[in-house]
Amino acid sequence: MSELPPSDPVAQPAIPVATLVPETAAPAQAPMLLEARDVHKSYWLGDKEIHVLRGATFGVRKGEMASLVGPSGVGKSTFLHVIGTLDPPTQGQVLFEGQDTGAMPEETLSRFRNRQIGFVFQFHHLLPEFTALENAAMPALIQRLPVAEAHKRAKEVLELVGLGHRMDHRPGELSGGEQQRVALARALILKPKLLLADEPTGNLDEATSEGIHQLLVQLNQQLGIAALVVTHNPRLAERMPRRLRLADGLVVDG
Amino acid sequence: MKKPFRTAALLLALVLYAIAFASQLVLRRFLSVHGLLSADEVLIVSFVAQTLVMFVTGFAVTFVARSSGWRELGAASLLMVGVAFAALKKIEPPSFSPDHYLARTDELVVWALLVGLAGFLLALWGGSFALIIGASESVELKSGYEAGIARTHLRLDRSMLLRLAWIGLSIPGTFFGVGIVFDRFSNGHQVPLWSLPASALSFLAFLALLGDWIRSRVREARLKPGQKRKRPATQVMTFISIAGVAVGVWALTVVLAVMSGFELDLKKKILGTTAHAMLQRFTGDMTEWRTIAPKIRAVPGVVGASPFVFGEVMISHRDALTGSEIKGIEPSTVGQVSELPKQVIAGEVAWIDDPSQIPRLPAKPHAALSSDLQDQDPDQYLEDTYERRKRHPEEDTASKIDDDALFKIPGICIGKEMSHALRVWVGDVVSVITPLGDMGPTGPVPRGKNFRVACILYSGMYEYDMKFAYIGIPEAQSFFRTKDAITGFELKYDDVDAARGLGHRVLDALGNFPYRMRDWTDLNRNLFSALKLEKVAMGIILTFIVLVACFNILSTLIMLVLEKTKEISILKSMGARDASVMKIFVFEGMTIGFIGTAMGILMGLASCSFVERFGLKLDADVYYISSLPVIVEPGQFAVVALISLCLAYLATLYPAIKAAQLSPVDGLRED
Q1: Order of strands, edge to edge, in the sheet holding A99-100?
Q2: Contact at 8 Å (CB) between B352 and B454?
Q3: Chain B contact set for A186 (CB, 8 A)
């Protein structure tokens, strides 16, 4: 495996490393976006080491949409955190467009998370003291865009998720579905290349979940954003073009 | 990610530490040789310079180390301890213990360790600034959203700020208003016209504030239990922290203002009686004084010079006797160097030179006497002296001397306390005795001479009023048998605080040796150094209040960090840098510190000017001062504010660094 020098992932052109990855059922041979190679992750609970991931290997291509299912407590969230660079792997590599994220220093990693990845969590995780507009604009502000520009983009993206009329409400004044849409808008404002969603409909009712999923599919088709959606709902998972399963610390197709 | 130890950073730290010490030593040497600064000022300037360089050391090392750099700085500081010990051993500084002249080895070890520790802490402090602006990778001075988040955490919107300003202004304003109204209608003092509507306005503002508060409480009480908005614990703690800082700053400013007031009062009284400086010869008396007087007066900055003859005597009247320091003065020039002519409460200073003017009948006290004596009991004093002499003129020797002889007796001016102790009044005859008399058949015989009291002086300093007496120069010269020589010159400068430098200038004009100069700080060294020590000690003790208040900030911020762990994780997952998270919490702590400091300064200013304006009565017999003196020194207030803000900043560092070090998943996993 060739070590790539740590550098700005934004400035670097994508280097296809598709050949290094086992063939998947991806419909098109688009360049590889994110790759996990032999990723291990373990936690210490007192004196006991718990191995959550034991050499998970997998890849997502540009514009690809996949679901990840697995029983509770198998480590789906941990897996998402590791490939989303929120948590470093104990062993193994996470490559984004061919670059090793483990070799990136803190600031580069932050900028990378800011621009390339959008997260949606099970619990919306919005900042409670800010309005929907301010919440959605936050990543743009972190990128140091001017406030006016950030708010303009936040409005656009909130309208995209159908919340144009709820912009000045705080999370507490929004319904669960609306909160999750704001979270989605926040994840999308900087047009990331990859969307990582951790049970985005985990605590929503059937109809609302359906709406969110349709929105996800629609956004994937419209904007070409690759998405990995962790879900509990087998019906929703079935509808994704590609289905992954996490079992025994490994990721398997099917 | 673990950062490597960087040797380059260590080397840089060593070089900069060396520069810090060198700058201190060079500045100290240079300033004490060339400048007009006093020894204390030289010490302060040089140590501030050293501190600044150490600050910069931390800043620079943090950039080179690309992390907090504490290991590199620590290693450099340890090396510095060794170097400092070796250097101190070479310099051989004086010991702090009274048993030794030079410092012992164990003292030097403590010294060197303290130097190392101080350098380390200062550098870490400087480094924290570098960390905040992003020294670990690329510098980022922008902080728009961080400030926004900090404001939201503290709930500091415009209405809250407005309300704080309102509280800060209307409460002291109301106090003032009450004081002014009381002054006008109860004491009948004149007050400026605008102050009445202004105080009414601030009173109304205060009422409005109270009303607003009551209304909000009522509204809240009417809400159903579920409707009530719960106030987060951190918000309550924020207010407590602000109040803590405010109270600390308030106490510090008020106490320092009072101590400055005492100091100034003392300085005023001392400089009213004694001159700014005294020019003498190293040995013997000055015979050439008539030729050097114009030279002294020609030096720029010197506004007056008056010759004097000094001696110690005893003064007696009937069976009362007191020791005294007597000064022969030139009544025509003494007004240039001291306030003597203004201190007269009965008689005239000029009568010293012309004793025939001193009336036989007791001269009336000056009209301003009762206000001059402030709150001491002037009636009792006059009863014992003036009134008594009017009723019993026969008690004094003057009544037994005929006019011709009486009007030839030279005049003397004495202090008010002395006149009270001797029970004499203007016109009475006292005898002055010096122990340095002639040789008689049985050994030395004291020599005495009669003087008539020409004037009574009141300086406000008990010691001066009890001890000092003044006669004319010719009488003094003949009494002490110094022929035409004088003891020296008293000088007055246009700037009291430049006394040292101007003294050098005068000495240079006279060709230095055999002349020597002692200025008022030298002459009253014990007094002023005791005052200064007291002020420094009080300052340090009261700074501890502010320090404790800053621990409040610390715990509030820790609570906030714990409360916002999830939020920090979310921000990090959205790409917020560590430095940004640090900025958020430093902003929050600094906001608390700033608001608290501002309110404390405001309260301090208000209470100082309140005391200044309306006074706080003291027992004048005990303190010799009728009301508590306060001086608002802007510089002093600024230093207090600076100290408080620095402490607040230091208090933010630990929580801010802890928050920055949180991993993005720490807060996400908790659900």
Answers
A1: A48-61, A32-45, A91-96, A99-100
A2: yes
A3: 574
Question: Where is B480: in which H helix or E strand?
Answer: helix B473-480
Looking at beta carbons, which residues of chain A come within 8 Å of B569?
86
CATH number of the CATH domain containing A67: 3.40.50.300
Under DSSP, is residue B33 helix (H, G, I), strand (E, B) or coil?
helix
- What own/partner pairs with CB < 8 Å and gap ≥ 24 does B561-566 have? B561/B585, B561/B655, B561/B658, B561/B659, B561/B662, B563/B232, B563/B234, B564/B153, B564/B659, B565/B662, B565/B666, B565/B667, B565/B670, B566/A125, B566/B667, B566/B668, B566/B670
Q: Does A193 touch chain B (CB under 8 A)?
A: no
Listing DSSP states for A187-219 in one string gives HHTT--SEEEEESTTTTS-HHHHHHHHHHHHHH
Question: Residue A176: which domain range?
Answer: 31-253
**CB within 8 A of B473, min separation 6: which ones?**
B307, B308, B309, B328, B329, B330, B486
Whose tokens are 């003196």? That residue is B629
Say whether residue A221 is in contact with chain B using an 8 A CB cutoff. Answer: no
Residue A166 CB burial class (10 angstroms; 0-12, 13-18, ≥19): middle
Chain B residues whose beta carbon lies within 8 Å of the beta carbon of residue A127: 149, 152, 567, 570
Q: ∠ at Cα B318 (B315, B324), nearest 5°?
A: 10
The mean pLDDT values, 10 residues at a time, for chain B of 671 residues are 74 87 85 71 85 88 80 87 86 74 83 88 87 77 81 79 80 76 70 75 84 86 71 79 90 89 82 82 82 84 87 88 90 82 83 80 68 61 79 77 80 89 86 81 82 86 87 87 86 81 82 83 81 85 86 88 87 86 90 91 85 71 71 89 91 89 78 49
Residue A21 distance to chain B (closest CA, Å): 27
Minimal Cα distance from A135: which residue of B? B571
Q: What is the DSSP letter of B564?
A: T
Record the tokens describing residue B175, joined without a space: 């106090």
Exposure class string for A89-102: b at 16+ Cβ within 10 A, else e = beebbbbbbbbbbe
CA-to-CA distance for B225 and B213, rounded, in angstroms?
20
Flag whether A3 is in a domain.
no
Q: Is B664 close to A141, i.e. CB distance below 8 A?
A: no
Q: Cα-flanking dihedrals φ and ψ of residue B96, to 5°?
A: -85, -20
Euclidean distance between CA atoms B353 and B61, whole angstroms: 74
Among the listed residues A207, A214, A120, A134, the one whose alpha carbon sits nearest the alpha carbon of residue A171:
A134
A170 and chain B: CB distance < 8 Å anywhere? no
Q: CB of A147 within 8 Å of any CB in chain B?
A: yes
Number of structural domains, chain A?
A: 1
Please enumerate in sequence order all residues whose Cβ is within 8 A of that of B454, keeping only pairs 6 or more positions apart, or say none.
Answer: B347, B348, B349, B351, B352, B355, B358, B411, B412, B413, B426
- With a CB cutoff of 8 Å and minimum separation 6, the contacts of B580 are A142, B140, B143, B145, B146, B571
Calpha distance B87→B107 (Å, rounded): 13
Domain membership of residue A9 (yes or no) is no
Query: Residue B424 is inside which H or E element, if any?
Result: none
Name the residue with tokens 């936050």. A138
Burial class (CB in 10 A: 0-12, 13-18, 19+), B497: exposed
Let me know if residue A182 belongs to a domain.
Answer: yes
Q: Supply the ipTM of this predicted assembly.
A: 0.83
| pLDDT above 70 as % of chain A | 88
Q: Are B604 and B254 in contact (CB under 8 A)?
A: yes
By the 8 A CB rule, do B114 and B84 touch? Answer: no
- Secondary structure class of B361 (helix, strand, coil): coil
In a domain, A13, yes or no: no
- The rounded distance, in Å, linking the Cα atoms of B490 and B476 is 16
The phi and psi torsions of B262 (rounded to 5 degrees) equal -60, -45
- Mean pLDDT of all residues in A86-92: 85
